[in-house]
Write a structure and sequence with these properties.
The complex is a heterodimer of chains A (441) and B (100). Chain A has 441 residues and is α/β, with parallel strands linked by helices. Chain A has 12 helices and 25 strands. Helices cover 31% and strands 26% of the residues of chain A. In chain A, the strands form 5 sheets. An 11-stranded mixed beta sheet of chain A has the order 2-1-10-9-11-12-13-14-15-20-19, with helices on both faces. In chain A, strands 6-5-3-4-7-8 form a 6-stranded mixed beta sheet. Classes of the chains: A alpha/beta (441), B mainly alpha (100).
Chain lengths: 441, 100
């Protein structure tokens, strides 16, 4: 069910580890599992299920978030596999077996399967700060399982061959939790315990496990992997999520790695609900049972594993009963001179231009005196070797002139965080610095 | 613990100061930092505190370093930011692994 540094771990060993770790838990019904090693995270998660505790999965572990977690659940404690863990909560160190013990025991005694009730409350996930104040969402074990079983079916992981999943995303993040940990547990496949970061580490982690292999990653890591020119071992499937993937990058990845690249759509509230193959299709296909509907100017998702009808934060065009197009986030809507667009739509157009590696539009601060009262968009772009005039001309052909960036700033990289998102503050700080420098010249 | 160990000459200290200046300049240029390359404290952490680089910056520098010196950075099971615990450490790493 898992590989630790290339060494297989069988289900019986896993279950024995789960029972041992569950026995080490203190009282307290809520647990923050910050184990960095994917295997230890999974053992601790299963141990919390077994002992009827609820896992809290916030998107970050900043002191402010920890403070909020304590307000949410006063009895929360933290399990960690790091010697120096700065989290201000009662802590349990992950009780790792000794290397001799790990090497010696072939099949431990208590490897009996465990049944978890579908109605069991497994976790609370929290929406990230970018969509407002963190809010908790209940996840029952049955709903989590139903979601990733549909995912496994859609990704073609149920063909009877034992796939191994390598992930660059943390198991604590909703995407990594679903697509590395739960996906492997619930589809008869395995995951690799590491969380490789540098391209060379990603490739060596991939080579350490047998084929067929799947890589669960983000656009940022894919971009770096391609640019690094490290030979990528044969990888049968690559998954991307967290930020939109441009069609150019998707095609490059498929060609260079001779693979199938699928993109996942979902949210913390709903879990994953759809996927597509961006190199060849624009439309997203919903997971089995999930349906969309429009009302009150918003799109709602319901059915399948979704507990209750949930509004999506994106502009969605429903194209068929089980298909849709995405046109960007609601909060990204821009209205200029009576015309409406979205930053995501503009970003998509910018990133589709040949030679553009990354790019993002943003709405300029109205505080800027020269812009008083007028909304204007600007853009930061990473496009080495491309002339401003060429880029502007290309944009002119794709978007309405009112949305042309004023100015279009060339930078070496965008300040994406480690899930590939662009925090508003970081984007604006970089823009301000670049503008200042441009003004000084 | 070999018998002839006392006879061995200690390895001459490698002078990495030229490379260090080059790497500092590379980081500043790659990330468009608002500091001068010569102002980076060679002992201070580059990751998190100190220069305040985040994990995406580090991926970016890893890429530049691989192109410039032919060395692919590896965490080798350590924390990803370990190689970046100081400019000196990064320079030593490159010096030991460079192929061009």
């Amino acid at each position: 069910m898992a590989y630790r540094s290339g060494v297989p771990v069988r289900a019986g060993q896993f279950l024995a580890d789960v029972r041992r770790v569950a026995a080490s838990f203190p009282r307290g019904d809520h647990i923050l599992n910050v184990c960095g090693d994917r295997y230890r995270f999974t053992v601790a998660f299963a141990a919390s299920l077994l002992s009827r505790k609820v896992s809290l999965l916030p998107s970050t572990h900043t002191p402010e978030v920890i403070r909020q977690l304590k307000l949410f659940a006063a009895d929360v404690f933290c399990i960690t596999d790091e010697a120096q863990c700065g989290i201000d909560l009662p802590r349990v160190a992950y009780p790792e077996r000794s290397p001799a013990d790990r090497a010696g025991s072939a099949e431990p005694g208590d490897g009996q399967p465990v049944e978890i009730d579908a109605e069991c409350l497994a976790a609370y996930v929290f929406t990230s700060g970018s969509t407002g104040t963190p809010l908790p969402y209940r996840k029952t074990w049955g709903r989590l399982v139903s979601c990733v079983r549909h995912e496994a079916e859609r990704l073609g992981l149920l063909d009877g061959r034992p796939h191994t999943i390598v992930g660059t995303v943390p198991p604590q993040h909703m995407y990594g939790f679903e697509s590395t940990v739960l996906l492997a547990l619930q589809s008869g496949n395995a995951f690799s315990s590491g969380r490789p970061f540098y391209p060379a580490d990603v490739c060596s982690e991939l080579s350490s496990v047998p084929r067929p292999r799947a890589l669960v990653t983000t656009p940022v890591h894919l971009r770096t992997l391609l640019a690094s020119e490290v030979p990528v071992p044969v990888t049968d499937l690559i998954l991307s999520a967290t930020a939109p993937l441009s069609r150019n990058l998707a095609r490059d990845v498929e060609q260079r790695c001779d693979t199938r690249l699928l993109e996942i759509y979902g949210s913390t509230e709903t879990g994953q609900i759809a996927c597509r193959r961006p190199a060849v299709e624009l439309e997203w296909q919903l997971f089995r049972g999930v349906r969309l509907s429009s009302s009150e100017g918003q799109t709602w998702a319901q059915g399948g594993h979704i507990e209750q009808s949930t509004p999506l934060c994106d502009v969605v065009e429903i194209t068929a009963e089980d298909r849709f197009l995405l046109h960007g986030r609601l909060s990204d809507l821009v209205n200029i001179a009576g015309k409406r667009s979205s930053l995501a739509y503009l970003n998509h157009q910018l990133n589709a231009i040949p030679g553009v590696r990354d790019g993002a539009f943003f709405v300029r601060d109205e505080a800027d005196a020269s812009l008083a009262g007028v909304t204007r968009v600007a853009a930061l772009v990473v496009a080495p070797g491309v002339e401003v005039s060429t880029l502007t001309e290309q944009l002119r052909q794709r978007i309405d002139p009112v949305f042309l960036p004023r100015p279009l700033l060339f930078v070496d990289a965008l300040p994406r965080n480690d899930t590939g998102k662009l925090p508003h503050e970081a984007l604006h700080a970089l823009a301000a610095a670049t503008l200042k420098r441009a003004g000084a010249k | 613990m070999s018998d002839n160990a006392p006879l061995r000459q200690p390895a001459p200290p490698v002078d990495n100061s030229v490379l260090r200046a080059e790497v500092a300049a590379l980081i500043v240029a790659a990330l468009n930092l608002e500091v001068a390359a010569t102002d980076i404290d060679p002992q201070a952490p580059l990751y998190g505190d100190g220069l305040g680089l985040d994990s995406i910056d580090i991926l970016e520098i890893a890429l530049v370093v691989s192109k410039q010196y032919g060395v692919q950075l590896r965490a080798d099971g350590e924390e990803n930011g370990q190689i970046f615990r100081s400019l000196d450490h990064l320079t030593d790493y490159i010096s030991a692994h460079r192929t061009k």
